[in-house]
Design a protein that fits this description.
It comes from Acetobacter aceti. With 367 residues, the protein is α/β, with parallel strands linked by helices. It is 39% helix and 19% strand. The chain is globular, with a radius of gyration of 20 Å.
Amino acid sequence: MKINGVPYRSVWVDQTDQRTVCIFDQTRLPFALEILRLSSSEQVAHAIVTMQVRGAPLIGAVAAYGLALALSADASDEAMEREASMLAATRPTAINLRWAIDRMLQKLRPVRPEDRVATAYSEAGLICDEDVAQNEAIGRHGLELIRAIKNRKQERERINILTHCNAGWIATVDWGTALAPIYMAHDEGLDVHVWVDETRPRNQGAALTAWELGSHGVSHTVIVDNAGGHLMQHGQVDIVIVGTDRVTANGDVANKIGTYLKALAARDNGLPFWVALPSTTIDWRVQNGLTEIPIEERSPLEVTTVTGRTAAGHLETVRITPDHSTAANPAFDVTPARLVTGLITERGCCDASGPGLQSLFPATTRL
C-alpha cells in the first residue's frame, strides 16, 4: 500500500545492510511515522512483545526474519532451536507466529549451518510474498460480498461497514485481511464508509485503522467501542468484517477483545458478521476455541493509562483511573462459530464450521 504516494510493505530487508530488517513502529502511529531497524533476534522479540509490530500475519513474518538474524550470529543447531523457542513464546494467542517459526525450522534443520543464513532469509522472504498474495486474494473474495450489498441498495446509498481493531496492511505484510476488500471496493469506485471501533485499551482502530483508511482516502468515522450495537439498531451498518488471530478447526474465532460483543449485536440485528483470514491463521489442532485457545493477559497499565498528543504537539501518557484501582486486561476474546456468518480466505468464502473449512482446505493440502 502507499503512504503519501510511496509504496511500502510493513516489513522489509534494508537494501544497504542485508542484516537489518525494517518495520514501522506502530506504537508511534498515527502521530509519527518512524522506521525501526532491527539487527538481532532480541530486538525482534522486544518489538513483538511491546507491540511495536503487531497483527497476526505480520508477527509471523517478522519473527521469521528474527530467526534469520539470530542465525547470522550463531547458526548452530543448539542456537537455532533456542532462538526459535524464544521468538515463538513472545505472544501466545496468534497462531501465525508459531506457524512461521515451525515452517522456518522445517526448512532449516536439514541445511548445513554454513548455509542456513541465506536459506533463512530466502524462506522469510517467501513467507512475506505468500502473505501478500493471500491477502490480495482475500480482498477479491471479500469484494464480492460488498458488491452484493451494493446491488441491493439504491444507487446513491452508501455501503456502511463496521470493523474492530486493525486488520489492514499494517497488520500484515501488505493489503490486510478485513480491510483488503474495503480498499478494493473503494478503488473500484464503490461508495463505502467504515465505522472504525476505537478498540480499547490500545486503540488500534482509532490509531491504526483510521490512519490507514485516511491515507488511502477511504471514508471512515471513528466510534467508541460500545457504539456499534446502537448503529446496527438504527440501520447504519450493512456488514461487519473483522480479522482474527486464530481460527479453530470448527470455525471459532479469536480476535481482539470486544469482537464477541460485535458478533452478538450483529446476530440480534440480523446483520452479516464475516471474518477475514489467511489459511496460516487456522489452527487445525484446536476444536474448542473457548477452552483451548490461550488468551493473552497484558499489562494493566494499558487500561489505566492512555497516550495521546497534546495541543502543543507532544506525546504524553496520563492515568485515567484512580490510583487505588486495579485493572484486568485480557487482550482477546473468542467468538463461537455459531455467531459467524462465514470466513473469507484466500481460497474463497466458506461457512464457519469444520465442513466449511475442509471444503476449501482438504487435509492433503494442509501444511
